[in-house]
Amino acid sequence: MKRAMSLVxxxxxxxxxxxxxxxxxxxxxxxxxxxxxxxxAIKIGGIGPLTGGAAIYGNAVKNGTELAVEEINAQGGLQxxxxxxxDENDPEKSLNAYNNLKDWxxxxxxxxxxxxxxxxxxxxxxxxxxxxxxxSASAADVIKADNAFQVCFTDPNQGVASADYIAENGLATKxxxxxxxxDAYSSGVHDKFKEEAATKGLEIVADEAFTxxxxxxxxxxxxxxxxxxxxxxxLPIYYSEANLIIQEMNKQGCTASVFGCDGLDGLxxxxxxxxxxxxxxxxxxxxxxxxxxxxxxNFVSKYEEKYGETPNQFAADAYDGVYAILAACEQGGVTxxxxxxxxxxxxxxxxxxxSVDGLTGEGMKWEATGEVNKAPRAVKIQNGAYTAx
Length: 389
Fold this sequence. Notes:
Blueprint: H1 2-16, E1 31-34, E2 42-48, H2 55-74, E3 80-86, H3 91-104, E4 108-111, H4 115-128, E5 131-134, E6 148-150, H5 155-168, E7 174-180, H6 184-199, E8 203-210, H7 219-227, E9 232-235, H8 239-252, E10 257-260, E11 282-285, H9 294-307, H10 313-332, H11 340-351, E12 356-358, E13 361-366, E14 372-373, E15 377-382, E16 385-388
Parallel strand pairs: 2-3, 2-4, 4-5, 5-6, 7-8, 7-9, 9-10, 10-11
Antiparallel strand pairs: 1-3, 11-15, 12-13, 13-14, 15-16
Helix pairs in contact: 1-5, 2-10, 3-4, 5-6, 7-8, 10-11
């Protein structure tokens, strides 16, 4: 089965690489409401970092969500009302945001954006029977309960797909890994990557960890990667730490290529960063803004006009997430007068019955486990932009 899935992923990637309610007032500086719903609307809550070190992710998700909600409401059918709360990538603040949204009357949650806060909020949603669809929290434990689903790939799937892609495209045979052992996302990808690499003939020549308490000096990890003879450094981490590691690689003259997952999406938007150092960095992602299909180009054009920047995969996952909720609401007969628990029951059943042609995958479907089925793409940074491989 693993080999069959690997072949399907490889084939999908080989062919695809070339190639969203009425405005309401809310209290607190860390909340936002948007939409132009007329009449009764289903209340959708969002939670993510709008400030702080992970704000690139949270704002992208908020923007993608807003754009989808505006489009859906303009169609005149089922209406949504959005309230998006800032959690600063802090689990306790994320839980506070969730409680604020419940007080507001939330009927479904699109969030949270990042993994650690979602691991805190998800059990609360399960206890409340509140429907949860996270665009980007990728830990497998996020979807342990039957009320929770993901738009993004799970961490294990990203680890497996990364190892498969590196091996099957001959990118390297000697691999160094630098990862955050204190982070659920990073550790989850790391563990499955290492396991899959062993089956693909990839040699892990260095396996270096850091923690949240020690993530500013990567000289030792990079030195070990360099001295190991690694041809490629795998970074299953977030872009802020990746930026520091790439700088250190440049400083030490480490010429190994760099490959990562969706956490690296954001490198090109780091204020003041020397983006020339990112040339050649590769990452797996479900979305490439330079794809030439009409759906992607329309989304990118609208997003750039509204927000003044190019959307990343987090914006695209959020956009698809709203349309998935719409499809599930229509399939399940959800109406605005239903309470959150009734909405959750309807959406749980509907999610395994719908198929969504989105920005991040054609014919996306969901398992009862909450996992999404779609094929990843790989992109490379060239001339200061993400380009499909």
